[in-house]
Amino acid sequence: MSNPQQLRYSKEHEWLSAAEDGVATVGITEHAANALGDVVFVQLPDVGSAVAAGETCGELESTKSVSDLYAPVTGEVTEINEDVVNDPSLVNSAPFEGGWLFRVRVTQEPADLLSADEYTAFSAG
């Protein structure tokens, strides 16, 4: 499992792209997708809604369990990935590409986001 170096990661197993024009993309990591098993349903935050770093903003349901989705940053949701809503298995098959979950206009970023190497060490332990 290789975590893309250009992303940052939360200890709740979400990834965050670098913000372009203040908007970043959010998804869950391959580690989290594998732990969940086959994702069969996603509940994402509504476009226009506010999310707060570290707080629940959605839900992922798999054949094994239901897991909360946490916002890695504070901001306003600008877009959700309709492809994932229609085909939740994208979270498992392409967690870092087509399986992204939502985009957020970042207003505050926590200081404890991890680099790829830090996240790899964290998730291994």
Q: What separation lies between the terminal Cα atoms?
A: 15 Å
Oligomer: single chain
Q: C-alpha Rg, in Å?
A: 13 Å
Arrangement of strands in the largest sheet: 1-2-3-9-8-5
Q: Return residue spans where pLDDT drops below 50 for at least 5 consecutive residues.
A: none
Number of helices: 4
Question: What does this entry look like structurally?
Answer:
A hairpin with a 4-residue loop joins strand 1 (8-9) and strand 2 (14-16). The protein has four helices and nine strands; from the N terminus they run E-E-E-H-E-E-E-E-E-H-H-E-H. Helices cover 20% and strands 35% of the residues. It has 125 residues and is α+β, with helices and mostly antiparallel strands. The model has no long low-confidence stretch (mean pLDDT 95). The chain is globular, with a radius of gyration of 13 Å. A six-stranded antiparallel sheet has the order 1-2-3-9-8-5. A three-stranded antiparallel sheet has the order 4-6-7.
